[in-house]
Design a protein that fits this description.
Length: 276
């Protein structure tokens, strides 16, 4: 008898805090068996204490370590009888700054976690998804996947890549009954935000500060809504996605002048000019 019994299961990367933890909490509350992984061991132990050891599998995991990822998934599969209903590729890191001022090691660190780590997780978990009826491969993209965002160019590029990969896999995986979808969050109250961001965050509009639970709700809804591909949090982010596709030049000018990062960009430019 597997540890999960006859419960559905979800495997989450980046589960120790923020959107991953909110999702783990919600699915545990709904009676699912939760696989929770993260580099933050203390956070995982706190999660286990909160939802109960019988209701979860926890393991530290660096998604850039392929051998470790394979081992963790193998151990998780023993607890579920070789099945997986929902893979939530959520682990991610952010690095801000002008692209030309980042070291290439900083660039590749973001790429390796946010995109290569996602691809590795999907590739390794696919046999489990394939073995499970109505399974879902779900990934955290970003509102920055609607238009390339200055100041977080590499992060934005990885999230564009995640979005494109999801679209392609939603067609490819259908031949085995596996679904694929993603979530494109705007400004979410999580530890990935720079310190102090929450204090001056908008309270309305598409880039208003949203709780991590709003993303968890989207993960839950995505599993129960087979036809939907992209989940926007809040929904207005979808309007930006449409506008960026139809009139990218106009969106570019709006971001430069009045977008949510305009003030940050101006400050960066002023500091760079003062340093010269």
């Amino acid at each position: 008898m597997s540890k999960s019994g006859d419960r559905k299961s979800i495997f989450i990367t980046g589960a120790a805090s923020g959107m991953g933890k909110a999702t783990a909490d919600l699915f545990a509350e709904k009676g699912w068996f939760v696989g929770a992984t993260d580099v933050n061991e203390a956070g995982l132990q706190a999660l286990e204490s909160e939802i109960g050891a019988d209701n979860c599998f926890i393991s530290t995991l660096d998604v850039t370590d392929g051998d470790a990822f394979a081992s963790v998934l193998e151990a998780f599969a023993k607890d579920t009888g070789g099945t997986l209903d929902l893979l939530f590729n959520n682990a991610g890191i952010g690095a801000g700054g002008f692209f030309d001022e980042m070291t290439f090691d900083e660039v590749m660190a973001v790429v390796n976690v946010n995109f290569v780590g996602v691809m590795r997780g999907i590739h390794l978990a696919y046999p489990l998804l394939k073995a499970t009826p109505n399974s879902l491969c779900f990934t955290t993209s970003s509102s920055s996947a609607t238009y390339g965002m200055p100041g977080i160019a590499v992060y934005s590029a990885t999230k564009h890549a995640v979005k494109g990969l999801t679209e392609a896999l939603s067609i490819e995986f259908a031949r085995h009954g596996v679904r694929a979808a993603d979530v494109l969050p705007g400004l979410i109250d999580t530890p990935i935000l720079p310190e102090g961001t929450q204090d001056g965050a908008p309270t309305e509009g598409m880039f208003r500060l949203m709780p991590a639970s709003s993303v968890a709700d989207s993960v839950w809804d995505a599993y129960h809504t087979p036809e939907k591909l992209h989940w926007y949090v809040p929904e207005e982010i979808g309007d930006l996605d449409k506008a960026a596709g139809n009139t990218p030049e106009l969106v570019r000018e709006q971001i430069k002048s009045t977008g949510p990062l305009a003030a940050v960009i101006r400050e960066m430019e002023e500091k760079a000019a003062a340093a010269q």
